[in-house]
Write a structure and sequence with these properties.
The protein is α+β, with helices and mostly antiparallel strands and about 80 residues long. It has 3 helices and 3 strands; from the N terminus they run ααβββα.
Length: about 80
């Protein structure tokens, strides 16, 4: 994991929850962690990581995540065994 990926992971686990993380950066982090990412219908993105599966919605029209998406991603990463 490079420095940028580590920074994104820290932002996801930061308290209070930080909005505005670019979705492309989150996807890059997930791929680095070994996640399988597949496109669903519309803006849905399926993610499988360490036996855990989740469906997220790619933000649109903006490219940054809101606080709810960051909380969901944090929960998913914790369940998959990742912490900051």
């Amino acid at each position: 994991m490079n420095k940028k990926h580590r920074k994104i992971l820290e932002q996801i686990f930061q308290q209070p929850v930080q909005a505005g993380i670019a979705w492309k950066d989150i996807e890059a982090l997930l791929k680095t962690l070994g996640a399988e990412i597949s496109e669903g219908n519309g803006s849905r993105v399926r993610v499988a990581l360490n036996g855990m599966r989740a469906v997220f919605h790619r933000p649109h029209p903006h490219k940054e995540t809101d606080k709810g998406a960051v909380v969901s991603m944090r929960r998913f990463l914790k369940e998959a065994g990742f912490k900051c």
